[in-house]
Amino acid sequence: MPPDNVSEIRPAGLLRRLASMLYDSLLLIAVLMAVTALVVLVNQGEIDYTHPLYRVLLVLVMFAFFTGFWTHGGQTLGMRSWRLQLQRRDGGTPTRAQCVVRFLAAIPSLLLFGTGFLWILVDRDHMAWHDRLSKTVVVLVPKQQKSK
What we know:
- The protein is mainly alpha-helical.
- It has helices at 14-42, 52-71, 77-81, 96-111, 115-118, 129-134, and strands at 84-88, 136-140.
- The longest helix is centred in the N-terminal third of the chain and has 29 residues, at 14-42.
């Protein structure tokens, strides 16, 4: 079993994580547009973008998107593209509870001018606030050797 020492795991850098977030944002926007189209269809062409239930629905879709990917393989599509993987500190797949904590903690990390993400630059283990709170780490996955 791998050690519980985060410094022995190669954490991902900020730029790679931001690139992954950009990829995931594009995919998530498409998913949210599809959900919005369904809401418009159900409401016969009407939608109130300020309605609390609509906003809760969008947050729930985002929650399902991230926690679903994280609990099944530890990678979103953007993370897979940039060779990143979310793991527990011991190298295992994150639990559902860890993913919930991570998702909820990532919101203030992002909304406070990205301070929780920028923390990676000063943290000794290159971890964001939500990494520490959820006891997870985003690691760089080694390149696959191409077979001849």
